[in-house]
Amino acid sequence: TLGTQTDYRDGEAQTDPYSPEYVVRSGSVPEILMLATLTWGRGLPAGQAEMEIIDRIREKCAWEAALPPMDSPSNIAKRLKMMEAMERKEWAYREEEIDKLQKVQMEVFKKVLQRREENRNELNAMRLDNHWQNHQKAKEEKMRKIHHDCALMLRKVIAKRKNWMGKLERRDIIREYNDFASQTYAPLSRIGFFPDNNSDYYAVKNYYLNTFAGLCELEKSAPPSIFPIKIKAPKPKCIITKTGYIKRSGRLEVVLAQVHQ
Q: Where is the CFAP91 domain (predicted)?
């Protein structure tokens, strides 16, 4: 009921079982030597199929021990008859094994074919689904275009039915200015209105500011009290020499004052 957990798996440290050296006595045939072809992982540990092979080997050993000696013609004939019967039995057993293997292979082939058929059906269904979706998109696009054209034609017919007699209507200025979609607010280019041509329509154009003559006239009309401008020259913050240059000490004082601030 207890177990231990190691750092390594048992499979990493597992090796083939140890087979010690052996010596066969003269005149004896150990039964275990008949199973020398079975190794660990290939027949060992023994299962139902291996147990059937062991039973057949034992039966064959018992049959070989029961064969009559070849000392008389009757024994030879009997021996040949027994060998033919054993050969037919072995062939029948072999045929039965072949049938079993063929049945297993057929089952495997059926599963592979079934899986391939399912994959093919799934792929065909996916392709049909994509094809159907593309047709649906094309159908919806065509229906949308038909509805759009229908609405456009209906608007045209309704507009024509408003004045189907071709009578002249008087302009309703109040209705035009009340409707922001009218020609007053949004004129159409097809009737000869191009808004880009009159882009500078709302630009301010002043004669007194844009022309020299206007500036001269504006200067004459202005009172003379606004023209004298008194500007006081700023005093230099540095020490200036007679030649107009600033001394190095003066520049240093300005820098020190800025650093102090």
A: 4-156
243 in a structural domain: no
Q: Is residue 216 part of a domain?
A: yes
Residue-range definition of the domain harbouring residue 202:
192-222
Q: Whole-prediction pTM value? A: 0.38
Taking a C-beta distance cutoff of 8 angstroms, is the pair 63, 86 a contact?
Answer: yes
Tens digit of pLDDT at every position of the chain (261 positions): 667 666 666 666 666 677 778 888 887 777 777 777 777 777 777 778 888 888 888 888 888 888 888 888 888 888 888 889 889 988 998 999 899 999 999 999 999 999 999 999 999 999 999 999 999 999 999 999 999 999 999 998 988 887 777 777 788 889 889 988 888 888 888 777 776 776 777 777 888 888 999 888 888 888 877 777 778 877 766 677 767 777 888 888 888 989 999
